[in-house]
Write a structure and sequence with these properties.
- Helices cover 56% and strands 0% of the residues.
- It is built from 6 helices and no strands.
- It is elongated.
Amino acid sequence: MEDPNLPDNGQPGMNGEARRVAAADRLPGIRRMSIWLMLLWSLLSLGFYPYFWLGLRAKHFNRLHSNAKVKVTPIVFAAVASTVTPFFMEPLPDVPPTLGFAICVAAQLIFWGSLAWFYLQFFNARRAMMDHLAAFDTPEENYSRISALWTFLFVNLYLQFRINWAVTGDEQEPAGKA
């Protein structure tokens, strides 16, 4: 049986069945969320909300029609590394200077490496969304166009903005909606 979420014969655009899919089914399992609420959660969690946000949505991104998959291991590793490594980025007391410097450098490498690995998972989520949403593109609405620059700069906030648009078809958030 043919998948109703994919274009006919590899042609761009939607097939007849996909046109009838409700807007909320464009990204199954991924719900709309207020960007302002996400920003508040990020501030209250001292920056840890993006790890939580991506970790909770990883299974939904992995179910989309795409070869790009979000891995949970880098998310957990980056969350732990960003918590632990700052304690080792300053010279430790009672440690020889050479060893202290080596520990500082290793902590920096682990921190920045885990952050890059974590960011890669946001780009995997972006690719999964783009591949999946390409089936729903029309000349009027291009749901699969998700900017790499905005993804890099605003990570989960921008991806949620694009999710909100794909799910509701509305770029602006309705007032008072969470």
